[in-house]
Amino acid sequence: MNPNLQFDFIVNKENNTVNVKREFAADLQLVWDAWTKPELLDQWWAPKPYQTKTVSMDFREGGMWLYYMESPQGERHYCLNHYKKIDPLKSFSGLDAFCDEKGNVNTEFPRTVWNNSFVETSNDITTVNIVAQYESLEDLEKIISMGFKEGFTMALGNLDQYLEAQVKLRKENKTSNKARVCSYLNFDGKTEEAFLFYSSAFRSEFVGKGIQRFGDIPASPENPPIPEEIKKMILHVELPIIGGHILMGTDAPKEMGFTLTKGNNMHICLEPESRAEADRLFNELSAGGNVTMPMADMFFGAYFGEFSDKYGINWMINYSE
User: Fold this and answer.
1) Is the dihedral of CA 193, 198, 200, 203 positive or negative?
2) How far apart are CA 161 and CA 166, in angstroms?
3) In CATH terms, is domain 7-158 a member of 3.30.420.40?
4) Which CATH number describes the domain made up of 174-320?
5) Domain boundaries, the chain
6) 167/221 Cα distance (integer angstroms)
7) pTM assigned to the model
8) N or C: which end of the chain has fewer CB within 10 A?
Protein backbone atom coordinates (compact mmCIF):
# COMPACT_ATOMS: atom_id res chain seq x y z
CA MET A 1 0.00 0.00 0.00
CA ASN A 2 1.14 3.54 -0.74
CA PRO A 3 2.47 4.94 2.58
CA ASN A 4 0.89 8.32 1.77
CA LEU A 5 -2.60 6.77 1.92
CA GLN A 6 -4.36 6.50 5.26
CA PHE A 7 -4.91 3.12 6.89
CA ASP A 8 -6.35 2.95 10.42
CA PHE A 9 -7.28 -0.27 12.24
CA ILE A 10 -8.87 0.26 15.66
CA VAL A 11 -10.35 -2.36 18.00
CA ASN A 12 -13.03 -0.84 20.25
CA LYS A 13 -13.89 -3.16 23.13
CA GLU A 14 -16.51 -0.80 24.53
CA ASN A 15 -18.93 -1.46 21.66
CA ASN A 16 -17.41 -4.72 20.33
CA THR A 17 -16.30 -3.31 16.99
CA VAL A 18 -13.34 -3.24 14.64
CA ASN A 19 -13.09 0.13 12.86
CA VAL A 20 -11.05 0.33 9.66
CA LYS A 21 -10.41 3.45 7.58
CA ARG A 22 -8.63 2.78 4.32
CA GLU A 23 -7.79 5.11 1.42
CA PHE A 24 -7.42 3.84 -2.14
CA ALA A 25 -5.72 5.69 -5.02
CA ALA A 26 -8.69 5.04 -7.30
CA ASP A 27 -12.00 6.60 -8.26
CA LEU A 28 -15.21 5.78 -6.40
CA GLN A 29 -16.74 3.59 -9.13
CA LEU A 30 -13.69 1.35 -9.35
CA VAL A 31 -13.48 0.87 -5.58
CA TRP A 32 -17.23 0.26 -5.27
CA ASP A 33 -17.08 -2.37 -8.02
CA ALA A 34 -14.18 -4.11 -6.28
CA TRP A 35 -16.38 -4.60 -3.20
CA THR A 36 -19.63 -5.51 -4.93
CA LYS A 37 -18.85 -7.57 -8.06
CA PRO A 38 -18.05 -11.26 -7.55
CA GLU A 39 -15.44 -11.48 -10.32
CA LEU A 40 -13.47 -8.70 -8.61
CA LEU A 41 -14.04 -9.89 -5.03
CA ASP A 42 -12.70 -13.29 -6.06
CA GLN A 43 -9.40 -11.62 -6.95
CA TRP A 44 -8.62 -10.02 -3.61
CA TRP A 45 -10.95 -10.89 -0.72
CA ALA A 46 -9.02 -13.86 0.74
CA PRO A 47 -5.63 -13.46 2.43
CA LYS A 48 -2.75 -15.29 0.78
CA PRO A 49 -2.30 -18.17 0.20
CA TYR A 50 -6.09 -18.64 0.22
CA GLN A 51 -8.21 -17.88 -2.85
CA THR A 52 -11.82 -16.71 -2.82
CA LYS A 53 -14.32 -18.38 -5.15
CA THR A 54 -17.91 -17.19 -5.44
CA VAL A 55 -20.59 -19.87 -5.52
CA SER A 56 -23.44 -17.41 -6.02
CA MET A 57 -24.06 -13.70 -5.49
CA ASP A 58 -27.17 -11.53 -5.55
CA PHE A 59 -26.06 -8.03 -4.61
CA ARG A 60 -29.32 -6.41 -3.53
CA GLU A 61 -31.11 -5.71 -0.27
CA GLY A 62 -32.19 -9.14 0.96
CA GLY A 63 -29.72 -10.87 -1.38
CA MET A 64 -26.83 -13.14 -0.44
CA TRP A 65 -23.20 -13.86 -1.33
CA LEU A 66 -22.12 -17.49 -0.86
CA TYR A 67 -18.41 -18.07 -1.31
CA TYR A 68 -15.50 -20.11 -0.02
CA MET A 69 -11.84 -19.49 0.68
CA GLU A 70 -9.66 -22.33 -0.55
CA SER A 71 -6.10 -23.19 0.52
CA PRO A 72 -3.45 -24.45 -1.93
CA GLN A 73 -4.09 -27.93 -0.44
CA GLY A 74 -7.78 -27.73 -1.38
CA GLU A 75 -9.15 -27.03 2.12
CA ARG A 76 -12.31 -24.91 1.87
CA HIS A 77 -13.94 -22.54 4.35
CA TYR A 78 -17.45 -21.52 3.26
CA CYS A 79 -18.95 -18.14 4.16
CA LEU A 80 -22.32 -16.48 3.67
CA ASN A 81 -23.13 -12.77 3.65
CA HIS A 82 -26.74 -11.53 3.86
CA TYR A 83 -27.01 -8.01 2.39
CA LYS A 84 -29.17 -5.71 4.52
CA LYS A 85 -29.10 -2.15 3.19
CA ILE A 86 -27.53 -0.82 0.00
CA ASP A 87 -27.12 2.81 -1.02
CA PRO A 88 -25.33 2.59 -4.41
CA LEU A 89 -21.88 4.19 -4.51
CA LYS A 90 -22.31 5.30 -0.89
CA SER A 91 -22.69 2.38 1.54
CA PHE A 92 -23.87 -1.16 2.14
CA SER A 93 -24.30 -3.40 5.17
CA GLY A 94 -24.55 -7.12 5.69
CA LEU A 95 -24.38 -10.02 8.13
CA ASP A 96 -21.49 -12.43 7.51
CA ALA A 97 -20.98 -15.94 8.90
CA PHE A 98 -19.07 -19.16 8.40
CA CYS A 99 -21.30 -21.87 6.92
CA ASP A 100 -21.30 -25.17 5.04
CA GLU A 101 -21.40 -25.59 1.26
CA LYS A 102 -25.19 -25.29 1.30
CA GLY A 103 -25.17 -22.01 3.23
CA ASN A 104 -26.17 -23.44 6.63
CA VAL A 105 -24.65 -21.10 9.24
CA ASN A 106 -22.02 -22.51 11.63
CA THR A 107 -23.08 -21.15 15.03
CA GLU A 108 -19.75 -22.05 16.66
CA PHE A 109 -18.13 -18.97 15.13
CA PRO A 110 -19.00 -15.28 15.64
CA ARG A 111 -21.15 -13.54 13.03
CA THR A 112 -19.94 -10.21 11.69
CA VAL A 113 -22.19 -7.22 11.01
CA TRP A 114 -20.47 -5.21 8.27
CA ASN A 115 -21.19 -1.52 7.63
CA ASN A 116 -19.10 -0.14 4.76
CA SER A 117 -19.24 3.45 3.52
CA PHE A 118 -17.46 4.96 0.51
CA VAL A 119 -16.43 8.59 -0.05
CA GLU A 120 -14.46 9.96 -3.01
CA THR A 121 -12.21 12.86 -2.10
CA SER A 122 -9.91 14.96 -4.31
CA ASN A 123 -7.38 13.60 -6.80
CA ASP A 124 -9.13 10.24 -7.29
CA ILE A 125 -8.74 9.16 -3.68
CA THR A 126 -11.58 7.03 -2.30
CA THR A 127 -11.93 6.39 1.42
CA VAL A 128 -13.66 3.26 2.67
CA ASN A 129 -14.85 3.29 6.27
CA ILE A 130 -15.50 -0.21 7.60
CA VAL A 131 -17.21 -1.08 10.88
CA ALA A 132 -17.27 -4.77 11.80
CA GLN A 133 -19.47 -5.33 14.85
CA TYR A 134 -19.86 -8.40 17.08
CA GLU A 135 -22.52 -9.50 19.53
CA SER A 136 -20.21 -9.71 22.54
CA LEU A 137 -16.71 -8.88 23.70
CA GLU A 138 -16.00 -12.61 23.74
CA ASP A 139 -16.90 -12.83 20.05
CA LEU A 140 -14.71 -9.82 19.25
CA GLU A 141 -11.71 -11.27 21.06
CA LYS A 142 -12.22 -14.63 19.39
CA ILE A 143 -12.21 -13.16 15.90
CA ILE A 144 -9.11 -11.07 16.68
CA SER A 145 -7.32 -14.17 18.00
CA MET A 146 -8.10 -15.92 14.70
CA GLY A 147 -5.90 -13.38 12.88
CA PHE A 148 -8.58 -11.00 11.61
CA LYS A 149 -6.28 -7.98 11.44
CA GLU A 150 -3.46 -9.76 9.63
CA GLY A 151 -5.75 -11.52 7.18
CA PHE A 152 -7.89 -8.50 6.37
CA THR A 153 -4.85 -6.24 5.93
CA MET A 154 -3.30 -8.75 3.54
CA ALA A 155 -6.52 -9.10 1.55
CA LEU A 156 -6.79 -5.32 1.07
CA GLY A 157 -3.28 -5.28 -0.37
CA ASN A 158 -3.72 -8.16 -2.84
CA LEU A 159 -5.28 -6.27 -5.72
CA ASP A 160 -3.20 -3.13 -5.13
CA GLN A 161 0.06 -4.98 -5.76
CA TYR A 162 -0.99 -6.64 -8.98
CA LEU A 163 -2.65 -3.58 -10.53
CA GLU A 164 0.21 -1.27 -9.60
CA ALA A 165 2.73 -3.46 -11.39
CA GLN A 166 0.54 -4.07 -14.44
CA VAL A 167 -0.39 -0.47 -15.13
CA LYS A 168 3.17 0.73 -14.55
CA LEU A 169 4.42 -1.59 -17.25
CA ARG A 170 1.60 -0.64 -19.64
CA LYS A 171 2.53 3.04 -19.32
CA GLU A 172 6.22 2.28 -19.91
CA ASN A 173 5.50 0.26 -23.04
CA LYS A 174 3.11 2.74 -24.70
CA THR A 175 5.02 5.96 -25.35
CA SER A 176 2.63 7.81 -27.71
CA ASN A 177 -1.06 8.46 -28.25
CA LYS A 178 -1.11 6.75 -31.63
CA ALA A 179 -4.15 4.49 -31.78
CA ARG A 180 -3.52 0.77 -31.71
CA VAL A 181 -5.35 -2.52 -31.21
CA CYS A 182 -3.97 -5.20 -28.92
CA SER A 183 -5.07 -8.66 -27.88
CA TYR A 184 -4.57 -9.25 -24.17
CA LEU A 185 -4.00 -12.90 -23.27
CA ASN A 186 -4.00 -14.54 -19.83
CA PHE A 187 -2.34 -17.89 -19.07
CA ASP A 188 -2.06 -20.24 -16.11
CA GLY A 189 1.76 -20.17 -16.00
CA LYS A 190 2.39 -20.82 -19.72
CA THR A 191 2.79 -17.23 -20.97
CA GLU A 192 6.52 -17.59 -21.68
CA GLU A 193 6.06 -20.88 -23.52
CA ALA A 194 3.20 -19.45 -25.57
CA PHE A 195 4.95 -16.18 -26.48
CA LEU A 196 8.18 -17.92 -27.48
CA PHE A 197 6.03 -20.04 -29.77
CA TYR A 198 4.28 -16.94 -31.19
CA SER A 199 7.61 -15.13 -31.58
CA SER A 200 8.97 -18.02 -33.64
CA ALA A 201 5.84 -18.29 -35.78
CA PHE A 202 5.62 -14.55 -36.52
CA ARG A 203 9.43 -14.09 -36.65
CA SER A 204 9.06 -11.09 -34.37
CA GLU A 205 10.87 -9.73 -31.32
CA PHE A 206 9.40 -8.58 -28.02
CA VAL A 207 9.03 -4.80 -27.61
CA GLY A 208 9.20 -2.45 -24.63
CA LYS A 209 11.15 -4.04 -21.81
CA GLY A 210 10.85 -7.54 -23.21
CA ILE A 211 9.74 -10.32 -20.90
CA GLN A 212 8.94 -8.90 -17.46
CA ARG A 213 8.57 -11.36 -14.56
CA PHE A 214 6.81 -11.13 -11.21
CA GLY A 215 10.25 -11.46 -9.63
CA ASP A 216 11.26 -8.18 -11.34
CA ILE A 217 8.85 -6.20 -9.16
CA PRO A 218 11.09 -4.09 -6.90
CA ALA A 219 11.01 -5.03 -3.23
CA SER A 220 8.98 -2.54 -1.22
CA PRO A 221 7.84 -2.38 2.41
CA GLU A 222 4.40 -1.32 1.14
CA ASN A 223 3.92 -4.57 -0.81
CA PRO A 224 3.91 -8.15 0.49
CA PRO A 225 6.77 -10.33 -0.80
CA ILE A 226 6.31 -12.19 -4.08
CA PRO A 227 5.82 -15.93 -3.48
CA GLU A 228 8.82 -17.93 -4.69
CA GLU A 229 6.67 -20.23 -6.82
CA ILE A 230 5.51 -17.36 -9.07
CA LYS A 231 8.65 -15.19 -9.33
CA LYS A 232 9.53 -16.72 -12.73
CA MET A 233 6.00 -16.29 -14.09
CA ILE A 234 5.38 -13.56 -16.66
CA LEU A 235 4.02 -10.24 -15.45
CA HIS A 236 3.86 -8.53 -18.86
CA VAL A 237 5.10 -9.06 -22.41
CA GLU A 238 4.31 -7.41 -25.76
CA LEU A 239 4.86 -8.93 -29.19
CA PRO A 240 4.10 -7.31 -32.59
CA ILE A 241 2.60 -9.85 -34.97
CA ILE A 242 1.27 -8.68 -38.38
CA GLY A 243 -0.40 -5.50 -39.59
CA GLY A 244 0.87 -3.55 -36.58
CA HIS A 245 -1.16 -5.76 -34.20
CA ILE A 246 0.22 -6.32 -30.69
CA LEU A 247 -0.19 -9.40 -28.52
CA MET A 248 0.07 -8.68 -24.79
CA GLY A 249 0.26 -11.44 -22.23
CA THR A 250 0.44 -12.19 -18.53
CA ASP A 251 0.22 -15.10 -16.15
CA ALA A 252 -2.73 -15.08 -13.75
CA PRO A 253 -1.38 -16.97 -10.73
CA LYS A 254 -3.90 -18.48 -8.35
CA GLU A 255 -1.44 -17.70 -5.55
CA MET A 256 -2.32 -14.02 -6.02
CA GLY A 257 -6.05 -14.64 -6.00
CA PHE A 258 -6.84 -14.96 -9.71
CA THR A 259 -9.21 -17.45 -11.27
CA LEU A 260 -8.51 -18.19 -14.94
CA THR A 261 -11.17 -19.73 -17.16
CA LYS A 262 -11.52 -20.08 -20.91
CA GLY A 263 -14.11 -17.33 -20.76
CA ASN A 264 -11.82 -14.64 -19.32
CA ASN A 265 -8.42 -15.56 -20.78
CA MET A 266 -8.53 -13.15 -23.73
CA HIS A 267 -9.60 -9.53 -24.33
CA ILE A 268 -9.39 -7.31 -27.39
CA CYS A 269 -7.80 -4.11 -26.10
CA LEU A 270 -8.51 -0.90 -28.03
CA GLU A 271 -6.33 2.16 -27.42
CA PRO A 272 -7.96 5.11 -29.28
CA GLU A 273 -6.47 8.56 -29.79
CA SER A 274 -9.04 10.54 -27.77
CA ARG A 275 -11.46 10.31 -24.84
CA ALA A 276 -14.36 11.02 -27.17
CA GLU A 277 -13.44 8.09 -29.39
CA ALA A 278 -12.99 5.90 -26.29
CA ASP A 279 -16.54 6.76 -25.19
CA ARG A 280 -17.97 6.17 -28.65
CA LEU A 281 -16.35 2.75 -28.99
CA PHE A 282 -17.37 1.74 -25.48
CA ASN A 283 -21.00 2.81 -25.89
CA GLU A 284 -21.51 1.26 -29.29
CA LEU A 285 -19.68 -2.02 -28.70
CA SER A 286 -21.17 -2.62 -25.23
CA ALA A 287 -24.79 -2.07 -26.37
CA GLY A 288 -26.76 -5.16 -25.36
CA GLY A 289 -23.73 -6.67 -23.63
CA ASN A 290 -22.47 -6.89 -20.05
CA VAL A 291 -20.46 -3.94 -18.69
CA THR A 292 -18.04 -5.13 -16.01
CA MET A 293 -16.23 -1.80 -15.57
CA PRO A 294 -17.72 1.49 -16.88
CA MET A 295 -15.43 4.04 -18.51
CA ALA A 296 -13.74 6.10 -15.81
CA ASP A 297 -10.50 7.90 -15.00
CA MET A 298 -8.37 5.34 -13.20
CA PHE A 299 -5.78 5.92 -10.51
CA PHE A 300 -3.05 4.65 -12.89
CA GLY A 301 -3.61 7.57 -15.25
CA ALA A 302 -5.78 5.99 -17.94
CA TYR A 303 -9.39 6.41 -19.00
CA PHE A 304 -10.45 2.78 -18.95
CA GLY A 305 -13.47 0.49 -19.28
CA GLU A 306 -14.18 -3.20 -19.74
CA PHE A 307 -17.15 -5.24 -20.98
CA SER A 308 -18.35 -8.32 -22.84
CA ASP A 309 -20.37 -7.55 -25.96
CA LYS A 310 -23.72 -9.14 -26.80
CA TYR A 311 -21.91 -11.98 -28.56
CA GLY A 312 -19.77 -12.81 -25.50
CA ILE A 313 -16.53 -11.25 -26.77
CA ASN A 314 -14.40 -9.52 -24.09
CA TRP A 315 -13.16 -5.96 -24.72
CA MET A 316 -10.99 -3.37 -22.97
CA ILE A 317 -10.99 0.33 -23.91
CA ASN A 318 -7.89 2.18 -22.71
CA TYR A 319 -7.04 5.84 -23.42
CA SER A 320 -3.92 7.44 -21.95
CA GLU A 321 -2.74 11.02 -22.31
Assistant:
1) negative
2) 9
3) no
4) 3.10.180.10
5) 7-158, 174-320
6) 19
7) 0.54
8) C
